Amino acid sequence: MEQILQQYQSVASTKVMTWFHVGKINDFPENGGACIKYKAKQIAVYNFTRKSKWYACQNVCPHKMEMVLSRGMIGDLSGTPKVACPLHKKTFSLENGENLNGDDYKIATYPVKIENENVYIGFTD
Amino acid sequence: MKKVIVIGNGMVGYKFCEKLVNKANSTDFSIEVFGEEPRPAYDRVHLSEYFGDKSANELLLAPSKWYLENNIKLHTSSLISSIDPSKKEIKTYKNESFTYDYLVIVTGSSPFIPPIKGVEKKGVFVYRTLEDLDAMKSYASKLKSEGKIEAAVLGGGLLGLEAANAAKELGMNTHVIEFAPRLMPRQLDLPASNLLKQKVEAMNIQVHLEKATSEILGENGIESMAFNDNSSLKVDMLIISAGIRPRDELARNSGIKIGERGGIWVNNKMQTSEKDIYAIGEVALYNDGIYGLVAPGYDMANVAVEQITGGDLTMAPSIDMSTQLKLIGTEVASFGDPFIENDEVAVISFENKHKGIYKRINVTKDGKKLLGGILVGDASDYNTLFQLYINAMKLPENPEDLILGARGGEASSVGSVMDFPDSAQICSCESVSKGAICGMIQDETCCSVSDVVKNTKATTGCGGCKPMVVDLVNESLKALGKEVKETLCEHFSYNRQELYDLIKINKITTFNEALNLFGKGNGCETCKPALASLFASIYMETANRQITIQDSNDRFLANIQRNGTYSIVPRVPGGEITPEKLMVLGSVAKKYDLYTKITGGQRIDLFGAELHELPLIWKELIDAGFESGHAYGKSLRTVKSCVGSTWCRYGMHESVSFAIEIENRYRGLRSPHKLKGGVSGCIRECAEARGKDFGLIAVEGGWNLYVCGNGGATPKHAILLAEQLDDETCIKYLDRFLMFYIRTAAPLTRTAPWLEKLDGGIEYLKKVVIEDCLGIAEELEKEMQGLVNQYECEWKQAIEDPEMMKRFKHFVNSNDTDNNIEYVPLREQKMPKAWR
């Protein structure tokens, strides 16, 4: 169980070694998310159209360890972009992965790059 | 800087730290905490919820990062072995030394284990820590695999009944064994205890009173218990909850004064016999007593903090042991002196055996002061009664009104919470007074209930004071001339009804448009589904049009389950199904290896479908003539029926035919919360129609129409709206009622709480629906007919459109499926493997 979580460590955009192509921008619903696969990792990618921004984070919710975050609703809390887990509505900041309900959970976030309508996620491996 | 060492990180130990870091001069102190358990402090009061749906993390009072952020050095799994008061030094079990300026001992208590022969046997547990619960859990699951399911709890006190609830949650057949002739002997009198016993037994927990255990028998582990009256009971697992003993051994060995029967002696400043050493919580012996409740422990923490930081607060001479809680689904409260009976006291009691309610108050002979009381089955009056008691307030002219309610008039017998004195303690867990709450509103520190909760922590303990805090905040705001308004969330400062009108009048059709025009920010998981529901209720828009504002179940048109797979419930109107269709469900379930179960709404639920399988399965179901059951939506679910006059020898009308007609009329109708209906063919009520949002019962001359009932956590019987209706009038009234509810209810409010809040209640609803006092009846019917005419099966819509199908792929960039899903066998089927 801990092994699943250890796979996911936040990646700063300055540390990216691989920009992995995951699809076209219209593969991702507006103001919502979808999941992509990179090696053994499942990554949730969000097309936050209202903010004209893209975000990516681990797909596994650290609360019950299920691969579901890409299916959650996104929005903001006093300006901080967030995703709500579809299972128990735990919410996480899409900027730094902090839990926003005051629980002791954190998720890993990844940088996203858009070039010519292509979507790339940054990894260090 | 002064160094404070805290030994013990339980609820009171945590509270001490919290109070200390919130002090203005807290930077003059550094705090180091030693806890024996592997986790930071957690909520022991709600321990049995660990077997329900709470994880260990959710029970934590504060996450580990809280200690870091507040510069508290926390050592977990660290037992302290000695204290040297002369050197002001403590030693850990690893022989590390630490010196202090102030020492606070909060080591709590341990369960008392009575000296019964055989008590050391395997399968005998105590109920105190999460580790105890983990051990019970794994032992119980081993037992169950061997077909052994008998569990007993020794002790019928407050904690014993909590433990019994936990054993029941583990799926064990549970017994409670109590030495006294009644349950909760410290809090309840005989009639109260008898009623509680009935209620506990109705939950399938057997109660054995006046039983003294003589021996625990068994070869390897416990197998049975023998009692002094020569009876015995087969038991595979025993939980002991026979009281607590203060954990005073550390203090005792260090020469600190201990009471004759245990407990660290303290004065009213919480000081022990040694300089600069304090003791608080269940380990402290104050006024010759040990107090096993959280509220006095929190008060002690407050006194110790004040003393250490230079204040002069002392502990009150008498400790209030009032308590209110929900035990195995029954509300129980006891306050003041619950038992007092003498010439100076008048006891007023009321018992309703039919409803299972008992109330008792003890009042001074002159009828002026309340001295104590007991409530079982309905503790909604507790807060008011407790305030009257604790503040020694003058009682109304007829004190019996306090428990019977004012008869004749509509006004409440006690008046409003605003009548309490400023000193009235509203939240006793966190010691928050009425003055503190109202003061923060008046000086504009706070302007909402959530602000008050953040600032004072009121309501965060047992939560019993929530309604009073809400009233206080609203009334104080009103008094300042501020508008009190329920708004949807931070993005919309309108309530649901206002948004309904705004969207309709302005013909708004998308969430983004609504947010741009009437809101701010980017939406959230509260307003998105609320608006999705409004678009559905106004335009009969299916969940396929704006998928990312749908709650996740609606987005994927299925019910997400604990492992991220989905369940599928096709509509089976009225619960009537042909053998051919049953066979289709069977073969689909078999083909996709789905766990199948009959639902409470007379349908069949197929569990364990992965995201990518949903459209494949639905294609087959639709080809066989099924349609979406909307089990995933806040929408009409089922109209349950009994078989009715077509087959039943007692049936008065055709309940199945009418149920099918109604279910098909309202299928796909989205509403503020789920909607359920029922139709019974006679007054025997086999369809349980009065447990539904709307229910019809056949009587001589037509249907009786009942509305606003529900099952669930707060069961409510539906109330009679109209009698002896013909089919057509019945549907007309239903149209009006449902549409009026959809227009006016707050989000996620079912019909019963909606009616409760509706000014004028059922009589007003009758005027709107039957007499048309608002002149909107025709409009409501027209709107409903419009929605009915536009119905479309959203699953059929989805599988016919390749663009809509995109959302059912697990990965955008791969055809792989989720490899994190595993199952374990369950009887002849399967269940998800839990990861935590």
TrEMBL record, chain A:
The lineage of its organism: Bacteria, Pseudomonadati, Bacteroidota, Flavobacteriia, Flavobacteriales. It comes from the Bacteria. InterPro entries: NasD-like, Rieske-like_NirD, Rieske_2Fe-2S, Rieske_2Fe-2S_sf. Residues 20-121 form the Rieske domain. It comes from Galbibacter pacificus. Pfam families: Rieske_2. Keywords: 2Fe-2S, Heme, Iron, Iron-sulfur, Metal-binding, Nitrate assimilation, Oxidoreductase. This is Nitrite reductase small subunit NirD.
From TrEMBL, chain B:
Residues 322-385 form the NADH-rubredoxin oxidoreductase C-terminal domain. Keywords: 2Fe-2S, 4Fe-4S, FAD, Flavoprotein, Heme, Iron, Iron-sulfur, Metal-binding, Nitrate assimilation, Oxidoreductase. Its cofactor is [4Fe-4S] cluster; siroheme; FAD; [2Fe-2S] cluster. It comes from the Bacteria. Residues 561-622 form the Nitrite/Sulfite reductase ferredoxin-like domain. Pathway: Nitrogen metabolism; nitrate reduction (assimilation). The keyword 4Fe-4S applies. Residues 633-771 form the Nitrite/sulphite reductase 4Fe-4S domain. Pfam families: Fer2_BFD, NIR_SIR, NIR_SIR_ferr, Pyr_redox_2, Rubredoxin_C. Residues 2-306 form the FAD/NAD(P)-binding domain. This is Nitrite reductase large subunit NirB. The gene is nirB.
